[in-house]
Each structure stands twice: as C-alpha cells, then as structure tokens.
Design brief:
Elements (H helix, E strand, L loop, with lengths): L1 E2 L27 E5 L4 E5 L5 E5 L3 E6 L5 H19 L3 E2 L1 E10 L17 H4 L15 E7 L5 E11 L6 E11 L3 E2 L3 H19 L2 H6 L6
Antiparallel strand pairs: 1-5, 1-7, 2-3, 3-4, 4-5, 6-11, 7-10, 8-9, 9-10
Length: 220
C-alpha cells in the first residue's frame, strides 16, 4: 500500500480521477465500486484474484494468488502511475508491502509432521515445548522489528487459522513491512523492491530447511 500526504485536487465531469479511467487495465476492470463519501474506487479482476483500491490519499494492490514479485510489481506500476498523474503527489507519508503466508501441511505432504520441525524455535514458541506443542489449540504473537535501513519496520504476526475447506489447522506468518518517515515518489518503487528482498529473507528465517524443501522453491 502507498499513501501520500501532498497532492493537487482536480475536478471533472467523470466520476474517476483524471487519468485513471484510461490507465486501469481491462483485466482489473471486472468490477468497479465507488464509495461516494470518501471516493474509494475498488477495481477487481473478473476472477477476483486482483484488487486495486484508490482514494485521493492512497493506492493499494492486493492479490490472492501471488506468484512472483516481478509480476506483482508490473501490475502495481499501472495504478501507481495513475495516482501520480491524477493527484501529482510530491511524497508518500507511508509505503508498505505485506505478505500473508499460510502454511497448510496437508498440501505439502507434511500432515503428520509436528510444527516444531517446520518452524524455527523463535517463531514456533510454545509449539516447540516437549509434550505440550501437540496440545496447543491456538497461538498468536506479534513483533515489530526495525529493518537495516534504520527507517523501516516489519511487523511479524503469527498464529493459527483454520482452512476454509476441511477446517485444517494452518500456521500463518503475516509480514507487514513499512516506512512511515516519508518517501519521495522517485524512491517509492525502489523502497518496495527493498521490502520484497527483506520479506524473502524473512520467510526463510522463519522456517526450517525441511519446510523450505517441501515448498519446492524455484531456483532463480
């Protein structure tokens, strides 16, 4: 998500901000919802996998089926430049990148593997305790960690959730990387590239080699 605090407002007869209507790609114009009170435009692809939210103060892109950062970045470029054209911000008060990883053991052939063998001890917490881990029915934790640039943080939230079909107990690693110190429009995409790199290292830091191998990572 990218939000800005410096903008020029424009008026026009179209219900969309100037420059927006012609720039949103057709595959993400399946559904359009506008909340008139705060001008929140929501664009959803026909398959519901992609969603763009745009107001005069922020733009956000989300997907339910993340594949590669390069593809996501390419999709983000469209609403990002639409925001620049429509509102001419000079800087962004907050910029962020969030990954929500749901670990479903049955899909990885690990149904009978204890969580302590899949998660690092500092992430598993009480799940690593002998004779106790298998009895844990719910667990939640949250940590805010400063990143190496000294200006950004990552909020790591972990815990259990049930799968939508079958009610399998899954483990969630929610990584929300952000910078709220102010980012120029020229540095915005570079900051997101930095967040993506840190997020890739973070998920690897959270899991064991056994889980990493079971996920069949691609070599790039």
């Amino acid at each position: 998500m990218i939000s800005h605090n410096s903008l020029n407002r424009r008026n026009g007869s179209s219900p969309f901000p100037i420059g927006l209507e012609d720039q949103i790609p057709s595959d993400i114009l399946g559904k359009v919802v506008q909340t008139s009170s705060n001008k929140n435009y929501a664009f959803t692809s026909m398959d519901d996998n992609w969603k763009i939210n745009l107001t005069r103060t922020f733009v956000a892109l989300s997907t339910k089926r993340y594949e590669r950062w390069e593809l996501f970045r390419e999709k983000l470029n469209v609403p990002f430049h639409a925001l620049l054209q429509a509102y001419s911000p000079h800087s962004f008060s907050r910029i962020g990148l969030r990954y929500i990883d749901v670990i479903k053991r049955s899909e990885l052939g690990l149904s009978d593997t204890p969580w302590e063998q899949l998660l690092q001890p500092y992430i598993a917490g009480v799940l690593s305790a002998p004779h106790v881990g298998m009895a844990v029915k719910d667990i939640q934790s949250r940590h805010d960690i400063e990143l190496a640039d000294g200006a950004s943080i990552v909020r790591i939230s972990t815990g259990f959730t049930e799968s939508a079909n079958g009610g399998e107990l899954c483990f969630v690693i929610d990584s929300d990387l952000s910078n709220s110190t102010g980012t120029s429009k020229e540095d915005a995409m570079g900051t997101l590239d930095y967040f993506n790199l840190r997020a890739s290292r973070l998920i690897r830091w959270c899991i064991t080699e056994r889980l990493h191998t079971a996920m069949e990572p691609e070599i790039v």
